[in-house]
Model the fold of this input.
Amino acid sequence: METKVLPITTESLAEARAIIRDGGLVAFPTETVYGLGADARNAAAVAGIFAAKGRPADNPLIVHICDKAQVEEYAYLTPLAEKLIEAYWPGPITLVLKKRDCIPDIVSAGLDSVGLRLPGSAAAREFLAAVGCPIAAPSANTSGRPSPTAAAHVAEDMAGKVPLILDGGAVEIGLESTVVDARGEYPLVLRPGGITAEMLRELCGGLLTKPQLPTQKPLAPGMKYTHYAPKGEVLLFATAAEGAALLSAHAEAQPLLIASAEMAAELGYADSFIPGKRGDLDAYARSIFAALRLADSQSRSVILVETVPEEGLGAAIMNRLKKSAGVL
Ligand code: TXA
Ligand code: MG
Done:
């Protein structure tokens, strides 16, 4: 199959609409990462997503909508969900709610819940409005690989497998949405993201650490799989002393160093990818997946990555880094 990569225009959106209507797949940008979309009401179309990604069938998909009012068509609202929608939609947070029957089982991987998201970026909402249906979409990477934050990353994984990639440039956030179970009295964070646990606690006056009501298990099936893994080995370090020890132990492998400007300077190692200054977590989030993909394109067998404190957005960054290193 030929894969077109097109900027977002009236014409390309019309093409996207026709592909989705006919049960095909379209990759599209959101503020978090690129998604691989199909009509969420069409089980055969959704099966195409699992095939293109090589995704395990027990990992449910997020359903993307472009209007808050659509929530009740697909799920049962709760007071907590209403509060979160009011505060954060459109934006990088997915709400897990009890699903209605119109969502096919393949979308929810057989669970009785569905993850709903109203993306924050104008490009994503233009796409959703143009296709005129709910869009089931995981990140547009091959299962297990780092998520795509640019159209070129999608093409690396999906060329020949999907007819259209809408190119909206680099994404704003770079990490996938926060996934929250909103069925209880307080939020239960299933996947950390840009809307942080601290923000949720502040808004809602509490956080759950385990489900309030008996629910089906596992809660976020996707979290148990290997994720975000480049081909090389990812090794994490916190201090300059640890970094120096790793650099000398792996000198022969010529590792790529991913570190703050300060750390790279301290280590005196030029072969580095520098997301930004120390503490610039937004910059780190935006470029970490691109950095891991760069390491792959350079065939690095070892990738050394400076860690960040696990607070706020740092918790989401470290969740992805630990998974890419195979230590979570
Ligand atoms: O930012 C994002 O969320 C991106 C963009 C494209 O919207 N999407 C994304 O989808 O990251 P995906 O499939 O790569 O990750 C979705 C995560 C998985 O860990 C999945 O198991 C979990 O959300 N999830 C989806 N539906 C769920 C449900 N009903 N219950 C629990 N977890 C769910
Ligand atoms: Mg994903």
Remarks:
- The radius of gyration is 20 Å.
- The pocket of threonylcarbamoyladenylate (ligand 1) is lined by residues 30, 32-33, 35, 59-62, 94, 96, 108, 111, 113-115, 117, 137-139, 176-177, 179, 190-191, 219-223 (CB under 6 Å).
- The longest strand covers residues 93-98.
